[in-house]
Amino acid sequence: MLLKRLLKRQLQAADSSPVARIIEAACQIILGKEAQIRMALACILARGHLLIEDIPGVGKTTLAHVLARSLGLHFQRIQFTSDMLPADILGVSIYERDSGSFKFHPGPIFAQVILADEVNRATPKTQSALLEAMEEHQVTAEGETRKLPEPFFVIATQNPAEQVGTFPLPESQLDRFLMRIELGYPDRNAERALLSGTDRRDLLASLDACMAPGELVELQGNAQRVHVAPALLDYVQAIVEYSRRSPEFTAGLSPRAALALVHSARAWALIEGRDKVLPEDVQAVLPGVAGHRLRPAHDVTRRIDVGATLLAAVPIP
């Protein structure tokens, strides 16, 4: 029944915008998490990488699959483990007897969407294999630089740091992720629908692409052209400056983080169907952009709501 309803909704949404179709389809698979789906889509439209942090079993991997399939992109999943090496991600040269030479065999990083599953279960050396790819959209292996396909996104999942067998991501790698989101447990109604409905894997198999890669690139360009008024930039700068002055944090938001906030707000406004950014757009994406970049100054084990702290402290100009 749920499968038929999903197919019916896909047909009904055929005349709507591609963004609306993606959100509609994703909400039928990831139940009760529309806000997180919108945040993830805004991250992609802003040409950023996404980090999903939560306990196992809440749908992190499924969300990555939904985004890749609905966007019509080539998808590769890399399961990170403690014994993984950088060559397992980038690729390796193998000697071929017929040609008498070494031939490079690309690793799974050469895809448009990479799911780095449980990225913090790998050692820092292996984690670092992603840094150049995420920043430069290229990899250097055995002295040769190779371009990655476009568009290129990394969707990484990580388990909470207090779980056994995890290696914390360094600040330099965390900063490469435009946003971090958490899915959390579903509410009671969503979980009942999950328990009584069709298996999510069956629904995922029936999901069609809602756009072509070329359309996604065009939407990304449209997001960058969304108007940001000088007063909005004043608001962003006030937030950034407060994070740098506040004694609550060890260090403030960097210029890269400020750019991430503007790009994300533009993408959020585009999803909402507007051609200009409002303060509400900045407020919507701020927790996802700033939450993994700011650390408490006094008690590093204490988790604070960074978005609520900044929004409460900085008034709208």
Structure write-up:
This protein has 317 residues and is an alpha/beta fold. The protein folds into two domains: 2-217, P-loop containing nucleotide triphosphate hydrolases (Rossmann fold); 225-313, Helicase, Ruva Protein, domain 3, CATH 1.10.8.80. It has helices spanning 2-12, 18-29, 34-45, 60-70, 87-90, 124-127, 129-136, 171-174, 188-196, 200-205, 213-224, 230-245, 255-271, 279-290, 306-313; strands spanning 49-53, 75-79, 91-96, 101-106, 113-117, 138-141, 144-147, 153-158, 177-181. Helix 12 (230-245) crosses helix 13 (255-271). The termini are far apart. 38% of the residues are buried. The model is unreliable at 10-15 (pLDDT under 50).
Class based on secondary structure composition and strand pairing? alpha/beta
How many H/I helical runs?
15
Q: Which regions contain 5 or more consecutive residues with pLDDT less than 50?
A: 10-15
- What would you call the shape? globular
What's the count of strands? 9
Helix content: 40-55%
Using only CA atoms, what is the Rg? Answer: 20 Å
